[in-house]
Amino acid sequence: MKKLFLTLIFLTVFTGCDDDNSNNSNNTNSNNTNNSNNSTNNTNNVNPCDGVNCSGHGQCVVSGSAASCDCDEGWVPSGLTCVEAQDPCTGIDCSGHGDCSSTNGTTPICTCDNGYVNAGTGGLECIEESNDCTGVTCSNHGTCVIQSDGPVCACENGYTPSASHGLDCVPVDQVCIGGAIDYDFDNDGTNDTWFEPNSDECLQYEILNRTRATHDDEGTPECHKPLMWNVLWAAHGRNHSIRMANQGSLFHDDYPSGQNCAYGCGPDCEMNMYMTGEGEDHCPPLSHHCNIMRCSFTQVGIGYSGTWNTQNFL
Predict the structure, then answer these.
(1) Residue 68: strand pairing partners
(2) What's the pLDDT tens digit per position in 206-239?
(3) Number of domains observed in the structure of the chain
């Protein structure tokens, strides 16, 4: 009986020690978990803009988890600092023949003096404007004239500018393509339809009557925007002259003011031009089915003097 009592005391004491150690272990694990959570929370609360003052010329902003500088006017970001913006015209002297400016604060442009034109990368040089007709002989069958977009040959009768670059005069291929043309054949006030036959003799269409319509006035031929000519055509061949009763239109809208148009603003020149249809089209660069030479033409044809709008129909 005495031995059994001692055994029970020993078991009770041993079991109580295990309970105390288990509680202590649980407390330790709980403390470690709390410490880990506190460490994570402290890391998440760090502000990327802490210590970033953008050199005193901007504000630090956070996008996602990264900091950047929103700099004041006249300053640009460089990492997490703001540095003074450089003048886009710094070091650009326009070859000494113009002034550099920047409309958007980033892209420089040279405004050249009279007699000088932009050249070089980005047009940041000003070079002397040359006579582009130097050395252009027009194959000895015409005269070189300067248009707004460069030189062109005004060729003598029987020759036309070459299709490749226009700086040579080549013989005219005088094979006409047949097509419908409306005109008042018997002067009865109605239009008849006449089909031009294929032949070795082409028809030339002359502007007999012209009016100019703009937003504010009508009258003297000038280049304005928008500009429209209402023209009455006449067709001339070797042995006949046909006055066409219908009117065509030359639309010059979207062509810059002050530039040469199909009539009235370019230099006079002589050229034999041929067309195979009614005279309605647009000024370059809006032409689609014909090629307009932008100058006035006088004294075209033997014994006849007139003003011509010339087009090569493609």
Answers:
(1) 61
(2) 333 333 333 333 333 333 322 233 333 333 332 2
(3) 3
